[in-house]
Amino acid sequence: MGRLFLISLEGNFYSCKHCQAHLAHCDDIISKSFHCRHGKAYLFEKVVNVTYGEKEERMMMTGVHVVSDMFCVGCGSMVGWKYESALEKSQKYKEGKFILERFKMLGADGSHYIITHDGQLVGSDAEE
Ligand SMILES: [Zn+2]
User: Which residues are in the Yippee domain (predicted)?
Assistant: First the structure.
């Protein structure tokens, strides 16, 4: 396995709430209007310090997508998922983009996300 090298971001970024590994830069947010089982989720252009699970087809609110779950390399906890491909033409813009669950991250100011119970949508995510 060897040593774990974590990429460090500068400026305003989100980090893993468990191990503080940096995950994504605030400037790389594409959309904040996604949902997951734990409330809000953000779509990012790029993320760092994650590993990917198996690709699988998953039914989302906006149709079937091929996604891979993403895990923090620091502590192994699931932090979101990557859109590998979308079957619906209107959803193609998500391909190669990343979802991070707000609940799993610390904000730029170190803030925790409190679940407000407005995000209880079944099957996780999608944009509204
Ligand atoms: Zn972590």
Answer: 12-109
